[in-house]
C-alpha cells in the first residue's frame, strides 16, 4: 500500500517536472515550435502556437489567453493573410540575424518578421503583456527590440499597446477587424489614431469614418 502510494507520488512528481521542463516562453535558433507545441509567457498569462478558428480547418500562428475561458480568445494572429492548409513539417523558428519565420515543409517562408539590424544571439520571447518580441538574448532593453507584435496588432488592443504613427518611419500602428468570425484576414473595419489636429481615435469602415465623436 505504502509502496504503491510512493510510486504514484513519484510518477506525479516526475510528470510535473517534465511538464515544467518542456514549458518555455522562448523560441531560439535551436528550439522551434511545431503544430501541437506552444510557448507560454513566464507568468502563464498568454500562450502562442498553432490554432484553427471555430468551424475552419485552416491553421494559423496565434496568441491567446492561457487561462481557461468559455472559448479560446485569440488576441493576435501572425499569418492572418496566409493560412496553412496543412502543418506537416511546418515550424516557427528564429534565424540569424534576428528573424522569426514560419516555414513550410519545403522550407519556404510563409510569414516572417523584419529587422534593420542583426544580433549575435536572437530569440523570440512571449511576454506576460501578450507582446511577442524578437531581441538579443542578453538585452532586455525594449528600445533595442528587433521586432514586436505590439507594433503589428490585429483586432485586439492590450494594455501597454500604443496606437499611432511614427512620422520618422511612416509606420502606423492600428487595429483591424477579422474578415469574418472564422477568418482572421483583415476585414473592413479599422481603428486608429487620427494625428491631424487634436488626436482622436477613429473607427473606419474602409475610408468612411464611423462614430467620429466617440472613442
Give a brief rundown of this model.
The chain is mostly beta strands. The protein has one helix spanning 2-22, and strands at 26-27, 38-40, 46-51, 60-65, 74-77, 91-95, 99-103, 109-112, 122-126, 132-136, 147-148, 164-165, 172-173, 175-180, 183-194, 200-205, 208-210. The protein has a single domain, classed as Bulb-type lectin domain (Agglutinin, subunit A, Orthogonal Prism), CATH 2.90.10.10.
β-strand amount: 35-45%
Mean pLDDT: 86
- CATH hierarchy, class: Mainly Beta
Number of helices: 1
- What is the strand tally? 17
Main beta-sheet strand count, sense and barrel state: 4 strands, antiparallel
What order do the strands of the largest sheet run in, or round the barrel if closed?
A: 1-9-10-11
**Classification by helices and strands:** mainly beta
CATH architecture: Orthogonal Prism
Please mark out the parts with pLDDT under 50 across 5 or more consecutive residues, or reply none.
1-22
Query: What is the fold-level CATH name, i.e. the topology?
Result: Agglutinin, subunit A
Describe this structure in words.
This protein is mostly beta strands and 215 residues long. It has one domain: Bulb-type lectin domain (Agglutinin, subunit A). It has 1 helix and 17 strands. The strands form 5 sheets. The protein has a 4-stranded antiparallel sheet with strand order 1-9-10-11, with no helix packed on it. The protein has a 4-stranded antiparallel sheet with strand order 2-3-4-5, with no helix packed on it. A hairpin with an 8-residue loop joins strand 4 and strand 5. The longest helix is centred in the N-terminal third of the chain and has 21 residues. It is globular, with a radius of gyration of 20 Å. The chain starts with a helix and ends in a 5-residue tail after the last strand. The N terminus is likely disordered.
Amino acid at each position: 500500500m505504502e509502496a504503491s502510494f510512493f510510486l504514484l507520488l513519484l510518477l506525479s512528481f516526475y510528470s510535473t517536472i517534465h511538464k515544467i521542463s518542456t514549458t518555455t516562453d522562448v523560441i531560439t535558433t535551436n528550439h522551434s515550435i511545431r503544430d501541437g507545441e506552444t510557448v507560454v509567457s513566464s507568468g502563464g498569462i498568454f500562450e502562442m502556437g498553432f490554432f484553427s478558428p471555430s468551424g475552419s480547418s485552416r491553421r494559423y500562428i496565434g496568441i491567446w489567453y492561457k487561462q481557461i475561458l468559455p472559448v479560446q480568445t485569440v488576441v493576435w494572429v501572425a499569418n492572418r493573410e496566409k493560412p496553412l492548409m496543412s502543418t506537416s513539417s511546418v515550424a516557427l523558428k528564429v534565424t540569424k540575424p534576428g528573424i522569426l519565420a514560419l516555414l513550410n515543409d519545403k522550407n519556404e517562408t510563409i510569414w516572417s518578421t523584419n529587422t534593420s539590424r542583426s544580433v549575435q544571439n536572437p530569440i523570440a520571447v512571449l511576454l506576460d503583456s501578450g507582446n511577442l518580441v524578437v531581441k538579443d538574448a542578453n538585452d532586455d532593453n525594449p528600445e533595442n527590440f528587433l521586432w514586436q507584435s505590439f507594433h503589428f496588432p490585429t483586432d485586439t488592443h492590450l494594455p501597454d499597446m500604443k496606437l499611432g504613427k511614427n512620422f520618422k518611419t511612416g509606420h502606423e500602428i492600428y487595429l483591424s477587424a477579422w474578415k469574418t468570425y472564422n477568418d482572421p484576414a483583415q476585414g473592413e473595419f479599422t481603428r486608429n489614431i487620427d494625428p491631424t489636429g487634436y488626436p482622436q481615435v477613429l473607427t473606419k469602415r474602409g475610408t468612411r469614418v464611423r462614430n467620429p465623436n466617440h472613442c
